[in-house]
């Protein structure tokens, strides 16, 4: 009995500490709302990062940044950030700051001014990018895109309302989180985003009044050369939509890369629905000699 209790206690401590570590990685300075910072501490950071530290204080309380501006783009990528429905920061944000936050806000401004006056940006100082968790491994070619807040869009695996739809036919994306867009096809945007359960989904939305360049796809016949899987999450869980067998034919659309190389393909579900997703590139025989600026070498 004692052994079981000790084991449960160890597991609880591990999970608790892991959650604390994850939360800490979501903020540049996690306790800037409850601890007085020091001038010496701030001078360890580079000039750019102190600007983000300064704005993190306000972002905690839903500060509305200028849409598309650098701080707006960054904080919309943070899972904890939700801009206030009331865009008047004087009414909706400022009254929420406590005295410690106001102290740290002034200190950040003073240190930044000191650095500007001395024409020194501390280029070798700590940079905020090394201290925050960036969420997931975004595919190259997908760019963070600013949407109006508080909108939700149905998500389909292909640019067609009759195509396969994840989350048991209920997949949606909220514009209150970070949304990355690769381009547009017939009015549909190809998006990448993190879901509520922490996985990632790539799919299409329609009706968003947002500009994106046209997608350039090859639409080439291709063959699966090893048993493999099709996924709409090439960044985290690689959850299988369907299994693909050696010899199956698919339509090759393009290649996308993060830490892995993926063939983006179109095929069909067992019920005949169109579905698009990602297959590890090495499992697809593509007849093209060059694609996406990367040379392809086929095995002999």
Strand content: 15-25%
Judged by helices, strands and strand pairing, the structural class is: alpha+beta
Mean pLDDT: 86
Q: Biggest sheet: strands, sense, closure?
A: 5 strands, antiparallel
Number of strands: 15
Number of domains: 3
Helix content: 10-25%
Could you tell me how far the N terminus lies from the C terminus, measured between alpha carbons in angstroms? 60 Å
Order of helices and strands: HHHHHHEEHEEEEEEEEEEEEE
List the total number of helices.
7
Low-confidence stretches: 3-24, 289-300
Shape: elongated
Write down the Rg. Answer: 23 Å
In order across it, which strands form the biggest sheet?
12-11-10-7-13
What would you note in describing this structure?
The protein is 25% helix and 25% strand. Strands 12-11-10-7-13 form a 5-stranded antiparallel β-sheet, with no helix packed on it. Strands 1-4-5-6 form a 4-stranded antiparallel β-sheet, with no helix packed on it. Strands 2-3 form a two-stranded antiparallel ribbon. Helix 3 runs antiparallel to helix 6.
Which properties best describe this structure?
about 300 residues, single chain, about 25% strand, SH3 type barrels, four-stranded antiparallel sheet, alpha+beta
What is the compact description of this entry?
Helices cover 25% and strands 25% of the residues. With 300 residues, the protein is of the alpha+beta class.
Lay out the secondary structure.
Blueprint: H1 2-24, H2 39-42, H3 47-59, H4 70-76, H5 89-92, H6 99-117, E1 143-144, E2 152-154, H7 166-169, E3 172-174, E4 179-185, E5 188-194, E6 200-206, E7 220-224, E8 228-231, E9 240-244, E10 249-257, E11 261-268, E12 274-280, E13 284-286, E14 290-291, E15 294-295
Antiparallel strand pairs: 1-4, 2-3, 4-5, 5-6, 7-10, 7-13, 8-9, 10-11, 11-12, 14-15
Helix pairs in contact: 3-6
